[in-house]
Structure formats: C-alpha cells, structure tokens
C-alpha cells in the first residue's frame, strides 16, 4: 500500500478521536454544575418553580459530607453555613446543600438568582451590598476609588 493511504487513515483516526473527546467533555459537563449532575440523583420535583436554570439533586449523605465532596472537587469562591444549609458560591453558579429527610437536597443555580433567593443566609458573606452579590465600582463621581 502507498504511504499516502496511511496518512489518510491516520488523519481520519485523529478526527474520530477528536470527536469522541469533545463529546465526552461536553456531555459530562464541566465545572461544579457538571460535577453535581454526575455525582448526585436528579430530582426535578424539587426544582424551584419559575427558575428554569435551577436544578435540584438529592443524596443520601449528610449536607456536611456532600459539601466536602463538592468543595474537594471544586473550590468555591465563598462559603457560608447556617442552620438551614451550606451555601457555596462559584464564579457563575451557586450550590446550596440543605438537609432533607435522611440525606440532602442540592440546588445548583445561577449566582444572581441564588443571591436573591437566599439573601437572608448569604447577604453579609457573598457580597458588599450589590444586589447580585458582587462589589460594584462606579456609583458616581469619586466613589469606589
């Protein structure tokens, strides 16, 4: 067989391998959202109504253990714990782990929606007074400098 044939076969094999790698990466999800989806049981009945981005999951483990598993895999920017749950803040998402029967319910949602929904629990921990849990410079002449 000619060498050109082997180059074509090698090229086709590389393309197939690239497609398989991309499908694997994007189907498993990346970040904390993908981690939670791959490690806990989806519970659509526990999603917050009216928030299409909110995804609820359950685990038979205690909230503290679930939180340790998640933070071991994905380090949060901020973390707060109170009697109602554990609140993990990431760049774009928040993970809220709360007790439920003999285990936990885990909510994954956009950070701004989580901040508004759980403000009474995270208000003094996730931000400096901005309604979205972020500091904001530019409130007028001379402020924030």
TrEMBL record:
<keyword id="KW-1133">Transmembrane helix</keyword>
<keyword id="KW-0812">Transmembrane</keyword>
<dbReference type="Pfam" id="PF14042">
    <property type="entry name" value="DUF4247"/>
</dbReference>
<keyword id="KW-0472">Membrane</keyword>
<dbReference type="InterPro" id="IPR025341">
    <property type="entry name" value="DUF4247"/>
</dbReference>
<feature type="transmembrane region" description="Helical">
    <location>
        <begin position="6"/>
        <end position="26"/>
    </location>
</feature>
<protein>
    <recommendedName>
        <fullName>DUF4247 domain-containing protein</fullName>
    </recommendedName>
</protein>
